[in-house]
Amino acid sequence: MSSTFADRWLGRVRLSAWVTLTAPLLAILFAGVITSIVLAITGNPVFDTLVTMVDYGSQPRSLALVVNNATTYYLSAIAVAIGFRMNLFNIGVDGQYRLAGLVAAAVGGAVTLPAPLMPIVIILVAMIVGAAWAGIAGVLKATRGVSEVISTIMLNTIATGIGAYLLLEVWGERQGNDIATKELPEAARIAGIGLIPGTPQMVYGLFFLAIAVGIAFHVLLNKMRFGFDLRATGQSESAAVASGVDVKHMIVYAMLISGATAGLIGMPQLLGESFTYNLNFQAGLGFTGIAIALLGRNNPIGIAFAALLWGFLDVSSTVLDLHKIAPEIVVIMQGLTVLSVVVTYELAHRYRVNAEQRRVSRELAGGASATPQKEGASA
Amino acid sequence: MLRNRFGKVVAGAAAGAMLLAAAACGGGDTTEGAPSAAPADGASSAPAASGVKVGLAYDIGGRGDQSFNDSAAAGLDKAVAELGVEINELEAGNGEAESAKEERLRLLASGGFNPVIAVGFAYSASVAKVAAEFPDVKFAIVDDEANKLPNVSNLVFAEEQGSFLVGAAAALKSTKGNVGFVGGVEVPLIKKFQAGFEAGAKAVKPDIKIQAKYLTQPPDFSGFGDPAKGKTAAEGMFDAGADVVYQAAGGSGAGVFEAAKAAGGMAIGVDSDQAKTADPTVADVIITSMLKKVDVAVFDFIKSFTTNSVVAGSKVYDLKAGGVDYSTTGGKVDDIKAQLDEYKAKISSGEITVPKE
């Protein structure tokens, strides 16, 4: 195994089933112990806290909210993962989806189309805006070698500025102390679905879009030439060039696809809940996506579980405040979970490599017992 | 190939189960000795209990922001002391989903809290939704009158009028003819503060130089809770010749006071009487504060609930009603009090109309 730590961290190499199984189990122990210590130090009843969270988080309404949160997180994490798989760190997902959401909301409020077309147009606009904004960073990297980490962070700030200008000065309508784009007409709205029985709380209709995006991500990456080129470029640029991959084009394409996916992040919220882009439009989802992509190891199924776990923690944090436990404990849990998954994957991997070496050297030593040699045994 | 895929599925499943297991093993090692006393209602040690349970949801920053939320907290504390109500307070998180706001209010309403008070216009849509679900619970929302329901009281303030007074105070106190305004986030609400401040300063001295800066722009609301940003912005203003800076930036204001202290300048506080609430090491730079009496509004609302006289709809707390004002703690504006009170009378009588934007 000649993979680097970063390769394993970003999920660019397949780890053995043994590692993928053991690591999360160890992570559970690690995150659990540290969280308990933090709770105990801050003077909270450890067991009660966790029971309260699980109790509240597993009620039907909470579960529906968990799925809704996870839908948004999933789209965000997939957008980030597309970049990660190619060694591109798209920190700009945040700016991309916010700008995309605003423009899409404004377009949706301005045009009138029949029902099935309306949401499609809005979603397409969001994808185009997200792709265009990410594409700037892609072109800068391909043509000028500008690090996408730097350019996307700057583009986030610029997106905030442009977004604030467009909302406050151009498209926004005052509603008391709030300011919002024109509300979307009925034709543009996507009805919720009663996925979870026992609660009037609907699940976003675009839940299915998230699933489709996950499948598309898998197919693109594993079943298509493009995905092969993308992964090859991510693992070894020189090898990719040698096998005829146009790396510069790949950078631009990867950023465009990542940005288009980022454009979708705001859609469940816009088309299924708020029907407008206002001051309450949820910000910071792009950064949450980075953590979830890491937790899910950039794998479409892993990310799904990571997004659900994240959503569960977020939803159940609301109840902690009611019991006078600082809800920030959940942020600590989330950070610990990512950290411990990364650490334990690496530890499990190294342990396995060492064990493999010892086994091989033992067998070598046993097989050649007539001429005992010791240098094969690694400490 | 197949084995690997299976492994990943299992890994994901295990990751998903993480919390449950964390709960189990977390409980194992430290529960002993940690008494599992019912953690709710920790804050109430009131006198004669009235049986009224008040639920209050803060905006970002929560109790302890020395400003907007603390003003609401003061009203709540007064209700505990004088009316003997029980309370529970919840706080908004930065960047949370809209559903989290709803859930917070729903938890309070379904948990037997009545009335429920939401602090800040960010709760506008969620109050409208949850209030409709709980028609028997009385709701109040501070700073919003976009949504009107029969069981919602909208408590709104004439921030521009109070800001006019401190704007006049800034102009009267400034020796350099140069004053500054630091806004937390560039939203319509904070623009009202700016508009009033500028009008007040210009009323005193038409050619005064006014610097204005917002710390962040929506949807980035960190400008209400980032003292470092406030400090940088105010430093820039003092360097550019200002000697009085007015902050309408919530928790970021602490940085503005630090900058004023370092530059030997003056500062004007907001919402609470910040000469009292700010860090004592910098409180002496605060010549006055624009009082936005959220405490009065919150207390009045709770009181009206206990006497069964809640009025739904908008209640405007303006200068005339004593809902906004300027503070005199520290005696630093005593010399100009006559002029300020004159403006106050003119605004109350309608002789001066203060612009809102």
TrEMBL record, chain A:
CDD domains per UniProt: TM_PBP1_transp_TpRbsC_like (cd06580)
> How does the record classify its membrane topology?
Multi-pass membrane protein
Keywords tagged on the record: Cell membrane, Membrane, Transmembrane, Transmembrane helix
Against InterPro entries, the record matches this protein to: ABC_transp_permease
Keyword Transit peptide attributed: no
Gene Ontology CC: one annotated term: plasma membrane
Question: Which branch of life, at top level?
Answer: Bacteria
Major localisation: membrane
Gene Ontology molecular-function annotations: transmembrane transporter activity
| Cellular localisation | Cell membrane
* Protein name from the UniProt record: ABC transporter permease
- An example Pfam family from this entry, by short name, is BPD_transp_2
Query: Can you tell me where the transmembrane regions are?
Result: 21-43, 63-84, 96-114, 120-140, 149-168, 202-221, 251-271, 277-296, 303-323, 329-348
